[in-house]
Amino acid sequence: QVQLVESGGGLVQAGGSLRLSCAASGIIFKINDMAWYRQAPGKQRELVAAITDNSRTNYADSIQGRFTISRDNTKNTVYLQMNSLKPEDTAVYYCNADLYDTAWGPSMDYWGKGTLVTVSA
User: Fold this and answer.
1) CA spacing 20 to 30 A to 115: which of 4, 5, 91, 101?
2) What is the pLDDT of residue 103?
3) How far is CA 120 from the centre of its chain?
């Protein structure tokens, strides 16, 4: 069974920084795209940033220039460096990965349980 486990969330003041990590474990043959989503209270889950297996990146307009997504394929881990944080960045941040957990089947979509980021004014 594949698991995605996020870490690095917490409470930070506006203008501060946090680095989120998400490690995938279990039987994994290949990881395609990895991404970070977030869901603020009362709002729908939204894409924050995504990265392909060859490290092409895509960012939401709201975090462009402040957040950086990266990955370490040797560790099956994706990171989100968040700088210049704003109160509106407060949300539960979820890790997502599209990966092959068998040698013959289609790729599958996995989610972590989320990590809370709270930015105080």
Assistant:
1) 101
2) 87
3) 21
